UniProtKB/TrEMBL annotation:
<dbReference type="Pfam" id="PF00850">
    <property type="entry name" value="Hist_deacetyl"/>
</dbReference>
<keyword id="KW-0862">Zinc</keyword>
<dbReference type="InterPro" id="IPR023801">
    <property type="entry name" value="His_deacetylse_dom"/>
</dbReference>
<protein>
    <submittedName>
        <fullName>Histone deacetylase family protein</fullName>
    </submittedName>
</protein>
<dbReference type="InterPro" id="IPR037138">
    <property type="entry name" value="His_deacetylse_dom_sf"/>
</dbReference>
<dbReference type="GO" id="GO:0004407">
    <property type="term" value="F:histone deacetylase activity"/>
</dbReference>
<keyword id="KW-0378">Hydrolase</keyword>
<dbReference type="GO" id="GO:0046872">
    <property type="term" value="F:metal ion binding"/>
</dbReference>
<keyword id="KW-0479">Metal-binding</keyword>
<dbReference type="GO" id="GO:0016787">
    <property type="term" value="F:hydrolase activity"/>
</dbReference>
<dbReference type="InterPro" id="IPR000286">
    <property type="entry name" value="HDACs"/>
</dbReference>
<dbReference type="InterPro" id="IPR023696">
    <property type="entry name" value="Ureohydrolase_dom_sf"/>
</dbReference>
<dbReference type="GO" id="GO:0040029">
    <property type="term" value="P:epigenetic regulation of gene expression"/>
</dbReference>
<feature type="domain" description="Histone deacetylase">
    <location>
        <begin position="27"/>
        <end position="338"/>
    </location>
</feature>
<comment type="similarity">
    <text>Belongs to the histone deacetylase family.</text>
</comment>
Amino acid sequence: MKIVFSQDHKFQDGKSELIDGQIQPPVEKPARAEQILSAVTEARIGEVLAPAPVDRALLQTVHTPAYLDFLETAWDEWVAAHGDWDALPLDWPARTFTHRVPEAIDGKMGYYSFDAGTPITSGTWRAVTASASVAATGATLVADGERAVFSLCRPPGHHAAADVYGGYCFINNAAVAVEALRARGFSRPAIIDVDYHHGNGTQAIFYGRGDVFFASIHADPRQEFPYFLGYADETGDGAGEGANANFPLRWGTGWKSGYEEALEAALDRIAAYGPDVLVVSLGADTYHEDPISQFTLDTDDFPRIGEHLKRAGLPTLFVMEGGYAIDALGRNVANVLSGFEGA
Ligand code: OKP
Ligand code: ZN
């Protein structure tokens, strides 16, 4: 399986994340991608290729022009206002407020975000466009006939919606990949999101559409981030009714205590949709030692995820999302891919 990777991920290197009320070192850090790259290289998953630059027009099939302009200029506006420390929002238009876009950078950040844990830094734009290019190039390779490709994206993307960032995500790489695949003639893509957290951004992007299926297996939003989306009764809207399927699972879920069953149910729903290509939002934060997560999958369970995905029998693009247990992350990701290759 070919791997697409860009070193430019390293330009997203936040100084701080607000965790449990304290400013701490970010858990979403460059070492994650480096660990994954060395593990997939060691496991001989396949050749590593550099991405082609991503077109702005492709990004605009997913994100609004105003949002992309905001992301591109936010750092400079923040530095002019406050100096060159990480840009973090602190004020949001919750219920009772208007949804106007303010002039001040702090107000714009609140308008375009949903959490205070996702720093904009000097290199954010460069890193997030590189991450999107990794996804888009992976899609091109699948369209050119590769059976399966691994887009080693960083930063992740599945929490980002058309004009909202958060959850360490700015550009929705999986959605960009879907649009790149559609542009190359695939007409019925399905996305399966196996990251521990609900892919709220991906769901929101495709919620009103019947031409893209979205299934997500994740920690129950009653207990876990992103809290306000990811419930089982979210089934799609309008033309998208029936094309969204959520499988929320309680904290403590393991392979035999609910995960495998949910994965099979999600893949059954995808098979019933009749897709022509599969995009996997691949998180390894379902691992029992993940520092911010509460599922109990073990390293031996990850190849089984790959085996189940292989049985869908579809051209498949893996897009990297989360996973924060840095020492085991690369091995767990490589295990999914080798499980897929071996099945
Ligand atoms: C990104 B991805 C938990 C705070 C959670 C954001 C988590 C984003 C996860 N107390 N902060 O889905 O792995
Ligand atoms: Zn996650």
